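Ops channel
N.P.: pipeline sanity check, posting one input/output pair.
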């Protein structure tokens, strides 16, 4: 008998149907030589501190840092989980071979391997790896099973992540709670959550400490066209007034006219983070809600695997794209311009070198089921239109730059004329869509015809402006900042390059933001994310840059990705984490201040909280 272990019951039912297993039992389905069972996500976790030694049960400074000589796993204390684990363990003993059908990612690999390890599995294991839940994808996956060893580095990366979060999260949380928390007050610290919080706090302090400054820009109107001075702006109005007095009665001269064509390629396909950013911008959805919804679309077979960090497709998907497009019957008017032509194959879309285990999020080509929610339909619409748009031609325009001069003071006016909407035609009817971004320039004025050397009267003036503070983070912009380790990046190519050292994983960033809400560190006011006083106080007492620097934490994330690729030693990673925690512990213990931080969260006594600190919530 071949045992298939999936990550959730719904996936198990789909796989059982494909395999011809139809006999249902409590916790599994069997038939046709197969038995299909499932976990409920994590059934196991790393052991609690008290599992290693009773001395670690109580929160005391003398016990820190807590670093077990060897990490172990335990069943999560839940009767339903224990019952299902017993079923899985019994089936493992009875089977001849196991197929790991967990979600195709680092976390999915860790979930399944921990369960098999806890059950003492000695049977041969193969891996099912699929990008979508369609029947064809499942069948193809079973025809291309890989040996478990093929994904060893993926498991090791997940294990290092879990151990690193345990060592840093539990020790730092106890350390700062005991040193700076009030009675029973928990100050949650984590490898990912703390630098993320630092991003929010630093941005808020920039805003609160911002001092607006007035300045003036010199403009002049010639032939009803507004020209801007090419020199620097004026910090004092008097400097600008002096120039106006010099040039107001002198003729304005057209010095040069330049016309050039410009183009803008279609936007990239979605990875999880960019989809969350877009749904926050267009639909005002939180990151967690977007993830849950796109996960549901995946399980309903209409979109591909969501927890991805690439915006590319492998070359072999190209041959299926026409069929996928044809399946999008709701978008016939958008598909019409593509008919009769060979589909474009851009290197910004199809690139094997940019795809590892998963590709960008796209429709699967399956018909939409009738039970999609309104939110699911809206997110599917965003994914489908992005997929359609990458096969459209570039948006093109003609840009005119006119330079002028008056008494050697230079001025410039620009105008743009759209020559072809290209991919932007996909979004012309969208409110707040890609065609509606504030930084689009197709609304620049259409300039009249000018002649080089022409002169005439003009009307110079000063325009008063005031410097503006940076904007508060929204969930969308915070996700971007996490992805780029705090760098402010709008360019898609640069964003791709910075992903390797972003903080957190696409699949965990939404959960980290939710944790910060629950811990009383951040609040949402309309779309803006603001830090609480407790968060600001916490950032003040944390002196160790490794704990709160997005860039340094991003370097750690980069090493985890290297482990996943087999390019970095897991042992070295864990050793560095241990050394860092030891150094942080000594530094905090030497602080002679008597500060106390109170958060708005509801805190239990420390001994009741410690079980929760072993979970991924403390990242």
């Amino acid at each position: 008998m071949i045992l298939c272990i999936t990550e959730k019951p719904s996936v198990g039912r789909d796989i059982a149907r494909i395999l011809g297993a139809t006999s249902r039992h409590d916790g599994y389905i069997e038939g046709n030589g197969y038995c299909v069972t499932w976990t409920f996500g994590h059934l196991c976790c790393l052991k609690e501190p008290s599992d290693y030694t009773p001395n670690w049960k109580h929160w005391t400074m003398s016990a820190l840092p807590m670093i077990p000589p060897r990490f172990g796993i335990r069943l999560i204390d839940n009767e339903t989980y224990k019952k299902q684990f017993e079923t899985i363990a019994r089936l493992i003993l009875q089977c001849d071979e196991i197929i790991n059908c967990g979600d195709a990612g680092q976390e999915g690999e860790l979930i399944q391997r921990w369960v098999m390890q806890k059950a003492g599995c000695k049977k041969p294991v193969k891996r099912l790896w699929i990008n979508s839940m369609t029947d064809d994808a499942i069948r193809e996956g079973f025809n291309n099973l890989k040996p478990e060893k093929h994904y060893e580095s993926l498991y090791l990366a997940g294990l290092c992540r879990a151990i690193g979060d345990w060592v840093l999260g539990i020790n730092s949380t106890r350390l700062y709670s005991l040193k700076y928390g009030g009675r029973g007050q928990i100050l949650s610290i984590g490898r990912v959550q703390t630098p993320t919080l630092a991003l929010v706090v630093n941005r808020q302090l920039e805003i609160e400490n911002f001092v607006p400054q007035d300045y003036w820009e010199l403009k002049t109107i010639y032939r009803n066209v507004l020209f801007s001075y090419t020199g620097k702006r004026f910090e004092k109005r008097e400097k600008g007034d002096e120039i106006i007095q010099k040039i107001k009665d002198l003729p304005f001269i057209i010095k040069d006219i330049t016309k050039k064509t410009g183009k803008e390629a279609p936007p990239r396909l979605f990875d999880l983070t960019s989809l969350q950013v877009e749904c926050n911008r267009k639909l005002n959805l939180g990151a967690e809600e977007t993830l849950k919804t796109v996960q549901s679309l995946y399980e309903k077979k209409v979109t591909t695997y969501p927890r991805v960090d690439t915006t590319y497709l492998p070359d072999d998907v190209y041959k299926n794209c026409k069929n996928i497009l044809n399946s999008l019957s709701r978008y016939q008017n958008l598909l019409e311009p593509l008919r009769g032509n060979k589909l474009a194959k851009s290197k910004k879309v199809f690139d094997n070198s940019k795809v590892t285990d998963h590709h960008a999020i796209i429709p699967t080509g399956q018909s939409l089921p009738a039970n999609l929610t309104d939110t699911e339909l809206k997110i599917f619409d965003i994914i489908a239109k992005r997929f359609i748009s990458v096969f459209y031609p570039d948006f093109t325009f003609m840009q005119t730059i006119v330079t002028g001069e008056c008494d050697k003071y230079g001025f410039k006016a620009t105008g743009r004329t759209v020559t072809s909407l290209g991919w932007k035609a996909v979004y012309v009817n969208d409110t707040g869509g890609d065609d509606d971004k504030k930084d689009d320039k197709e609304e620049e004025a259409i300039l009249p015809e000018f002649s080089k050397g022409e002169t005439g009267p003009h009307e110079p003036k000063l325009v008063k402006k005031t410097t503006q503070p940076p904007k508060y983070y929204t969930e969308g912009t915070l996700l971007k900042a996490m992805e780029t380790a705090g760098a402010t990046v709008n360019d898609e190519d640069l964003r791709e390059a910075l992903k390797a050292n972003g903080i957190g994983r696409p699949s965990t960033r939404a959960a980290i933001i939710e944790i910060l809400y629950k811990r009383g560190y951040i609040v949402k006011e309309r779309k803006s994310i603001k830090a609480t006083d407790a968060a600001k106080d916490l950032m003040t007492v944390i002196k160790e840059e490794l704990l709160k620097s997005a860039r340094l934490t991003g370097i750690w994330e980069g090493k985890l990705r290297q482990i996943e690729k087999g390019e970095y030693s897991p042992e070295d990673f864990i050793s560095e984490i241990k050394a860092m925690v030891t150094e942080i512990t000594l530094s905090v213990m030497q602080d002679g201040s008597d500060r106390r931080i109170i958060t708005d969260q509801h805190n239990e006594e420390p001994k009741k909280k410690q079980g929760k600190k072993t979970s991924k919530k403390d990242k």
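N.P.: looks fine end to end. The first helix runs from residue 9 to 19.
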